[in-house]
Amino acid sequence: MEIRSFYPQPRLLMGPGPSDVSDRVLSALSRPTIGHLDPDFIFLMDEIKLLLQYAFQTDNALTLPVSAPGSAGMETVFVNLIEPGDKVVVCRNGAFGERMRENVVRCGGHAVMVDSKWGEAVQLDQLERALDDNPDAVAVAAVHAETSTGVCSDVQAIATLADKHNCLSIIDAVTSLGGIPVKVDEWGIDAIYSGTQKCLSCVPGLSPVSFNDKAVQRITARKHPVQSWFLDLNLVIGYWGKGSQTGGKRSYHHTAPVNNLYALHESLLMLKEETLSASWQRHQLNHQALKAGIECLGLSFAVSADVRLPQLNTINVPEGVNEAQLRQQLLNDWQIEIGAGLGDLAGKVWRIGLMGHSASQPKVLTLISALAACLVAQGGSVDSLAAVKSATKVYESAGN
C-alpha cells in the first residue's frame, strides 16, 4: 500500500468538539518553529498568560496552558490538589462529573457523590446537605457546562458553598470558557480548567488552567509528592511562572508544543479583539436562531431553557428516526459533524455544538437546511424553507 500525504475533507464541525478553527488560527500554526526557551517564545508565553487571565477573568498568577488536552487539565488540577485520604464532594450530573470522581479515586481520595439526573443542573440543596454531613471534606468538584447533556450549573453558588464549608472549589470549564460568562475571581473559584478546542476555537491539544493563592498554598504544602511528574505544578511553575516581564529566568521542564501555542495566542487575541461580552452574545444569538429553526422542524430540546447551554444543544431524536443514520448522512452528504448522545442519553439525542468559529449565521442556516433534508430522507414531513426563515428572522431582529 502506498502511503501519501494526508489531506482531510473539509468538515463543518457542529458537534460537542472540536469546533471549527479559523484560517487566522490555522495560519498561526504554520509559523516557523522556535525553541521553547527562546527569548521571543518566552515573551509569547507572557502574553498567553495575560490573555488567559482575561478569558478566565482572573488575576491569578498561576494561570497557564497545560501541554495536553482538556482531560490533562482536569488531571492536573486533581493530582495537585488532592492527596491520599482526602475527601472530595463531587457533583455528578453527566459523563464529565463521573470523570471527576474517577480522578479523585485515582488520587487515593474518597469521593462523596452528589448526583443529579442527566439533563438537570447540580442541585444546590443536595450539595449543601452533603457538605453538612461531611465536615472533613477538602474540596467540591463540579462541571460548569456539562458537555454530555448541554446543562449549565450555577458554579458561582457552588463555589460560595464550598468556601462556606472551608473547601476548595474545583470547576470544569472545558465547554464554557469563551461561550458563556466565566468569572473566576468574582465567583470565588479556587481552581479551574478548560480546553482550547471548544469555544476558544483553537486546535485541540492544550488545556488552560488557573489556581488562586489558596489553591497554590495547598499545592506547595502537600505531604505527598504529586503522583504525576509531568503534571506536577511545583515543577511546571518554574517554566510558566517566571518570564521576561518579571525578570525571572524560566527553568526547563518539558518541550512545549510551540506551534500549538502560537495558535492559542492567536485565538485568545481574537477573543480579546471581539471582547468576552460580544462572544457571549454571539453564542446566545446563534443558539436562539438554531432554536427557532429546530422547533420549526418539529424537533425539541432535551434540556429546559433555564439551564440550557447556548453552545451545546441536546436535541431529542424523534420517534421513528434512525439517529445514527441521520448523523452519517449529515457527514457523507453535507460534510457536517454533529454528536451522538452519551451514557443515559445514548441513542436518544443529538448534540449540536455552536462553539467558537462554528457559532455563525451561515453555519447555523446550513445545518438547519441539512437537518431538514436528512429528516425528509427518512420519511419526515418538514418545511426546510420555513425553518430557515424562522432562524433568519432571529438574526434580522438582532440587526444581522
UniProtKB/TrEMBL annotation:
<keyword id="KW-0663">Pyridoxal phosphate</keyword>
<feature type="domain" description="Aminotransferase class V">
    <location>
        <begin position="34"/>
        <end position="341"/>
    </location>
</feature>
<dbReference type="InterPro" id="IPR015424">
    <property type="entry name" value="PyrdxlP-dep_Trfase"/>
</dbReference>
<keyword id="KW-0032">Aminotransferase</keyword>
<protein>
    <submittedName>
        <fullName>Alanine--glyoxylate aminotransferase</fullName>
    </submittedName>
</protein>
<dbReference type="Pfam" id="PF00266">
    <property type="entry name" value="Aminotran_5"/>
</dbReference>
<dbReference type="GO" id="GO:0004760">
    <property type="term" value="F:L-serine-pyruvate transaminase activity"/>
</dbReference>
<feature type="binding site">
    <location>
        <position position="351"/>
    </location>
    <ligand>
        <name>substrate</name>
    </ligand>
</feature>
<dbReference type="InterPro" id="IPR024169">
    <property type="entry name" value="SP_NH2Trfase/AEP_transaminase"/>
</dbReference>
<dbReference type="InterPro" id="IPR000192">
    <property type="entry name" value="Aminotrans_V_dom"/>
</dbReference>
<dbReference type="InterPro" id="IPR015421">
    <property type="entry name" value="PyrdxlP-dep_Trfase_major"/>
</dbReference>
<dbReference type="GO" id="GO:0019265">
    <property type="term" value="P:glycine biosynthetic process, by transamination of glyoxylate"/>
</dbReference>
<keyword id="KW-0808">Transferase</keyword>
<feature type="modified residue" description="N6-(pyridoxal phosphate)lysine">
    <location>
        <position position="198"/>
    </location>
</feature>
<dbReference type="InterPro" id="IPR015422">
    <property type="entry name" value="PyrdxlP-dep_Trfase_small"/>
</dbReference>
<dbReference type="InterPro" id="IPR020578">
    <property type="entry name" value="Aminotrans_V_PyrdxlP_BS"/>
</dbReference>
<comment type="similarity">
    <text>Belongs to the class-V pyridoxal-phosphate-dependent aminotransferase family.</text>
</comment>
<dbReference type="GO" id="GO:0008453">
    <property type="term" value="F:alanine-glyoxylate transaminase activity"/>
</dbReference>
